[in-house]
Model the fold of this input.
Amino acid sequence: MKRKFVGICIIGILLCFEFGADALPSNDSKIIIQDKAGKTDYTHTVFVEVNTATWCPDCPASNTAWHSIYEDGNYNFEYTEMVVDKNTVAHARMNQYNHSIYPTSYFDGGQFVYPNTNISAFQNNLNYCALREVPDLVANLNATWLGSAKIQVDLDIVNNDPASYPGYLRVYIIEFQSTQWKDYNGNWYNHAFLDFAFNQTINISAGETYTNSTIWDGTAHGYPEISSENIQVILAVFDDEPHQGYSSPPSGKPFWAYYVDETIATTLQTINTPKKPNPPSGPTNGIANVEYTYSGNTTDPNGDNIYYLFSWGDGTNSGWLGPYPSGTTIEASHAWIYGGIYNVKLKAKNTIDGPWSNPLAVQIAGPDIELQNMKGGFFKVSAEIKNTGDLALSNVNWIITVRSGVFIGEQTSGLNLTIPANSSVTIKSGLIFGLGSTYIKVEAWIPNGPSKMIQGTGNIFLFIIKVNP
Done:
């Protein structure tokens, strides 16, 4: 074993169970409060998975709290936000915890489970998990950026224990700051999970080393525009001994917890890629269907020729341009079809592409949509989609989502709606039936065009839906 700890002074036990997500739980119905701070006597790096969703009004506090604790650097842990309503892989992983409350933090594979947000409780649980006796596993992890959103992951795990180690290996690909999803308050998620590079059982004989390697392809998994400097890779080894856990403490939503015995994280190595460009230069205001020209440049560390790629922020790009001598300023033009704010970015490659530049925000006046007048009523929720432009809009898609307290009618969607110029259309949910407080989100978008979202809280009393002001 890595380390045995002798005696933990329990300062107090706090039980505080209330209705909903304000419960203060753990798997054995108690929270151990310790008068400890920082990394003292940690036997291993703790790993935390956070069950969260973009529609959840309580989740931004958790997003902020975990980021704050991590940035302080006083606790030896890694964590990731599992955005289950946007990421099907995250949803499948959280289903293994039988998740039910948003947000919920799962410490070390479920040794502790904490719904809602309490920084002191987070810190206490980190410390307590870190004192658990663990097998003597030592992991090494390397991740290399290959360009074109591909990452080579190389790992080995040494079992220094006298017994064989059967367990489960997960390697998480995360973004330090999400470029995909924002929380309920409109802030980007921190440490947002994208996908697994490894997700498999392992069995390491005593004194032996497990070795493996893979190339994870971000484009193949739906993330073609990830940037090398924004990626972290986390390796976690879970044991194979089941422990009873509860996602709705003290005894609701049971699951089998498999504790984490080894965690290690790394950022990406890059191989002589061009330097990160400055944001593109060009107009920051314009109108739809008019071409605007943008420019930029960077240098290659070896003086090699460079190719450039502009991302126009509307789902399209310039295609690779070049090659050009290192340091050459290049130009490209683009016209946007719809109104809105678009983030124009630039990156360069020799044989391997480097990081994206910071964005240049460009505001385009033109056809756009607005969402307004979200209302409740008998059996349904409705809202209006407004076309604010002087031309008719087609291919408008929409979704109405009702979360919590709903038995029937959680989600209704529509496709290819046409809205005349300067007009509104009313969209309605399907039949809704339920009981209790609820969250309501309405989204409308045009593919590769403008998108809007409004959300709020309310109450359902059987077939009557009330939306709060």
